[in-house]
From TrEMBL:
This is Exo-alpha-(1->6)-L-arabinopyranosidase. The lineage of its organism: Bacteria, Bacillati, Actinomycetota, Actinomycetes, Streptosporangiales. The keyword Hydrolase applies. Pfam families: CBM_6, Fn3-like, Glyco_hydro_3, Glyco_hydro_3_C. Belongs to the glycosyl hydrolase 3 family. Residues 717-787 form the Fibronectin type III-like domain. One of its GO terms (molecular function) is alpha-L-arabinofuranosidase activity. Keywords: Hydrolase, Signal. Residues 806-948 form the Cellulose binding type IV domain.
Length: 952
């Protein structure tokens, strides 16, 4: 009798995943392997492999596939300061991904492109709402929690979470061509620190490089993918490209001559999956085949990439007879449990910024609910489709009597030929010019972006693909937002310019359309039909309290592809707020936004201010519960709120240390500090104790503090623990979050909170030796309600290393490992790996502190060491330059310091063609500061080697 055929090893769940992967890899032909390198992986029918696709969006709930539970935006989830809750949201989102996957496995894949763990370095970043915090440690905590929820608690993955976007990505302005300069300390202490926890824990199993360049090299070619990300992870991780990013490697980045060369480099750097040309992978795979034919790639290179892909598919249980998630059905989508979770997440994210006693509202007879966000909920680009909407208005209206006004101006637009009119048809129609006055409501979304809603049918105006203006949209929407316009002043009126197309509005043959010719733009007279501020003030004047809901539209003026230029509220929104407050001093400002605003006027004049991110489908219920006192506001800020954008460095300055950026280094007085958030009750702190007054790098110190609710209401407090290193070789943060605990206390209740502080977490990157070090130093442990509200402090003596002077002999100094700089940019020393330093202007310099030149200054007039003393006699530099130049070595000062040497840099063929030049060293003895001064622009230094020793 014949034995039954056995399943291949890759289908045997009893075997280790690595063995299953190797078995499957060995069965694939070369062409089948290539077919697995695109986002839409080709099936291998002879082995029973189904098609597989990467890239399901689930940043705060499943997106882009129809109605699903919409939770608060990611920055709102982090504002709960509740990792357990964030994990529950991730679990719910993962379950809904599985439900949709079971219905349509081809469209809804299980590789989820979330969470985003870019630290929120600058609040002007257009994608601010996607991240968690400006603090990299807190970002890592929240990102790990959400990723754990997505991946599930079984060995078999529920979904395969992907960390975005690696690396140094905080600007939309020219994002595909700008380079983020990351000095070693910023790289290791700030940027990488946010990515490591989720990978190291095994919570995230994939990573997506970012569009930008880092130190001159495209992030998709980063050697850190292999040297760091894959080293941290306990298992294989998948590296997927961002959409259309691989094609950028030739144009516009110009990093490679053609796509076969670029794609070969990307695969060797660690990229496993190309998100290019949507579902059609033919061109991409063709370029990979060409690279193989040219010898730019080997089959072993492809095997490495395919192995990572297959590892994820094996761990997802794709080849198992059953998985723990097979029974998840569509009943989980927007289930009662998920709706309750959405409401709780929204409630805990609501942050009370100011309260002079107006809140909570005490049985108001009438509430005026006012503002362009009062009666609306918005979906951001990565939001799911709202299954229902509980707005601020509906949430409050269910609880008390309300009057409502949007507070937007109603205008008529008149041309020389008549009024601009709009169709009353519910589906809209082309705008026209006629004799009867037609009205439009004007929405100010900031940054000079306005939207017009036709009163005739309540639909927004957009510039169609054919250029004709049509009133057929529910509001600003889509990737290419065609529904916003700029209002430009002209001598006889205004002209409108569609922001998306850049084209001007004109009237041609009675049809309102757009034109490229600014001189052909129709000059319009704007007739104010009804002042939104005045009507809103009338409504507020007759109410007990006014709740004004303002903020951003997530798809306008601050979104993917568009950074903000200001932190101010939209001008017409602030005008509305002032008018309402003048009519009724009992005014609460509710801000709904994905980023901070500089609400300085409101802070000075209003009695109460509340903020939350866009809160999802249950936002209105959560808000009403907080405003009316059912619940304590549970949120705390995870970003600094500044008084003005003038307090921020340049958007493209990624050196948070040198530029005093984020709460870590900011020396000013913010509007609201990192960690800020008020309660309806009062908390007292007492009895701060450390388990040890002195500790070493391998120890953990327990921080204990007693928190007491001294008020008459139950409330929530986030107890935050910070440290500050008192002395150091280098610039240290002014304060740094090390841990926190969220507690709920009844009136009069006390609780002792414990937070663990691993002393190893106090390490910083030592540029002199290229590693983390815990320095021997005194620290202060600070405990309080925010980074700006420290209640108690305790000293902690840390037994660590003393950083010695730089050893110059032995291995060369990397120019990028300097201590300070001026007028330089970090760039790539070679396409594959390595950083260098290039001068942006004559007189630029880099400094190396505490360099040990050996010996002691001698007695001769030049200060040379006495004969026989050890020390380098020559400095050899590796340099390149477009046009040649001069580099001078000075001691102790870049302008007046004595010259220790100088080299002439010859012109080189390209910036990557480095040559060696050298100079004798004069007067360099003892421990001195070394300045490398670039006398010319466009000179690059990669390394400095110090040669010599004992004199004969």
């Amino acid at each position: 009798m014949n034995e039954p055929a056995q399943d291949p090893a890759f289908r045997n769940p009893a075997l280790p995943p690595a063995d299953r992967v190797e078995d499957l890899l060995a069965r694939l032909t070369l062409d089948e392997k290539i077919g697995l390198l695109h986002q839409y992986q080709a099936p291998v029918e002879r082995l029973g492999l189904r098609p597989f696709r990467t890239g399901t969006e689930a940043l705060h709930g499943l997106a882009w596939h129809g109605p699903a539970t919409v939770f608060p935006q990611a920055v709102g989830l982090a504002s709960t300061w509740n990792p357990d809750l964030v994990r529950q949201v991730g679990e719910a989102a993962g379950d809904e991904v599985m439900a949709f996957h079971h219905k349509d496995p081809q469209s809804v894949g299980r590789n989820v492109w979330a969470p985003v763990v870019n630290p929120l370095r600058d609040p002007r970043w257009g994608r601010n709402e996607e991240g968690y915090s400006e603090d990299p440690w807190l970002t890592g905590v929240m990102g790990t929690a959400y990723a754990w929820g997505l991946r599930g608690s079984h060995e078999v993955l529920k979904t395969a979470p992907t960390l975005k976007h690696f690396l140094g990505y905080n600007n939309e302005t020219d994002r595909c061509v700008t380079s983020s300069g990351l000095p070693p300390r910023v790289l290791h202490e700030y940027e990488l620190k946010a990515f490591r926890p989720a990978l190291e824990a095994g919570a995230a199993v994939a990573v997506m490089p970012s569009y930008n360049l880092v130190n001159g090299r495209p992030a998709h070619l980063s050697p850190l993918i292999g040297s760091h990300l894959r080293e941290w992870a306990p298992d294989d991780i998948l590296a997927v490209s961002d959409a259309y990013a691989p094609g950028n490697l030739t144009t516009p980045q110009g990093y490679h001559r053609d796509l076969p060369e670029a794609y070969a480099h990307a695969i060797k750097a660690g990229l496993d999956s190309f998100t290019q040309d949507d579902a059609d992978g033919a061109a991409t795979l063709g370029h990979i085949r060409t690279a193989l034919g040219r010898g730019l790639l080997t089959e072993a290179d492809l095997d490495a990439a395919v192995r990572h892909t297959l590892s994820i598919r094996v761990r997802l249980g794709e080849f198992d007879p059953a998985t723990p998630y097979d029974e998840i059905t569509h009943e989980v989508v927007n289930s009662p449990e998920h709706r309750r979770l959405a409401r709780e997440a929204a409630r805990q994210s609501i942050t009370l910024l100011k309260n002079d006693g107006l809140l909570p509202l005490s049985a108001p007879r009438t509430v005026a609910v006012i503002g362009p966000l009062a009666g609306a909920l918005f979906e951001d680009w990565y939001s799911g489709t709202l299954p229902y909407q509980v707005t601020a208005l509906t949430g409050l209206a269910e609880r008390c009597a309300t009057v409502y006004h949007e507070g937007v101006d109603r205008v008529a637009l008149r041309t020389e030929g008549g009024y601009v009119g709009a169709s009353p048809d519910p589906g809209g129609g082309p705008l026209y010019v006629g004799s009867e006055r037609s009205c439009f409501d004007v929405f100010d979304w900031g940054g000079g972006a306005f939207a017009f809603r036709a009163c005739a049918n309540g639909r927004h105006v957009q510039a169609g693909e054919d250029g004709v203006l049509v009133n057929d949209q529910p509001g600003p929407s889509g990737w290419e937002v065609r529904q916003t316009f700029r209002i430009e002043e002209r001598p006889r009126g205004v002209v409108l310019r569609n922001i998306s197309s850049g084209r001007y509005v004109t009237v041609a043959g009675g049809v309102v359309r757009t034109t490229d010719d600014p001189d052909a733009a129709s000059v319009l007279s704007v007739e104010l039909v009804e002042s939104g501020a005045a009507r809103a003030a009338e409504a507020a004047a007759g109410a007990d309290v006014a709740v004004v809901v303002l903020g951003d539209h997530p798809l306008v003026n601050g979104r993917e592809t568009e950074d903000r230029t200001t932190l101010a509220l939209p001008e017409r929104q602030e005008t509305l707020l002032k008018a309402v407050h003048a009519a009724n001093p009992a005014t609460v400002l509710v801000i709904s936004s994905g980023y901070p605003f500089a609400v300085t006027w409101a802070q000075e004049h209003l009695p109460a201010i509340v903020w939350s991110a866009h809160g999802g489908q249950e936002y209105g219920n959560a808000l009403a519960g907080v405003l009316l006192g059912d619940d304590d506001p549970g949120g705390r800020l995870t970003q600094t709120w500044y008084r003005s954008a003038a307090e921020l460095p340049d958007l493209l300055d990624y050196d948070v240390i040198a530029s005093d950026a984020t709460y870590l280094y900011y020396r000013g007085r913010p509007l609201y500090p990192f960690g800020h958030g008020l309660s309806y009750t009062r908390f007292a702190y007492s009895g701060l104790e450390l388990s040890a007054a002195e500790a070493g790098p391998g120890d953990t110190v327990t921080v204990r503090v007693t928190v007491t609710n001294e008020g008459g209401r139950p409330g929530e407090e986030v107890v935050q623990v910070y440290t500050r290193q008192r002395r150091s070789r280098v610039k240290q943060p002014l304060r740094q979050l090390r841990g926190f605990a969220k507690v709920r206390l009844a009136p009069g209740e006390s609780r002792t909170v414990e937070v663990e502080l691993p002393v190893g977490d106090l390490a910083f990157w030592d540029v002199t030796r290229g590693r983390f070090v815990v320095e021997d130093a005194a620290h202060t442990v600070q405990v309080g309600a925010s980074s700006g509200d420290i209640r108690l402090c305790a000293p902690l003596r840390v037994r660590g290393e003393r950083i010695p002077p730089r050893v110059l002999t032995g291995r060369p100094l990397d120019a990028a490992g300097h201590d300070e700089y001026d007028g330089v940019v970090l760039c790539d020393a070679a396409p594959v790996a390595g950083d260098a330093v290039r001068s942006a202007s004559p007189g630029a310099w880099i400094a190396f502190r505490d360099c040990d030149f050996g010996g002691e200054p001698g007695g001769d007039p030049e200060g040379d060491p006495v004969p026989g003393d050890a020390g380098p006699r020559t400095c050899a530099l590796t340099v390149s330059s477009d046009e040649g130049g001069v580099v001078t070595l000075r001691l102790d000062d870049p302008l007046t310091g004595e010259v220790a040497g100088a080299v002439t840099v010859p012109p080189t063929a390209t910036r990557h063609d480095f040559v060696g030049v050298s100079t004798p060293l004069a007067g360099a003895a003892g421990v001195r500061d070394l300045y490398v001064v670039y006398e010319s622009e466009g000179v690059t230094v990669s390394t400095l080697a110090f040669l010599g020793g004992l004199r004969p």
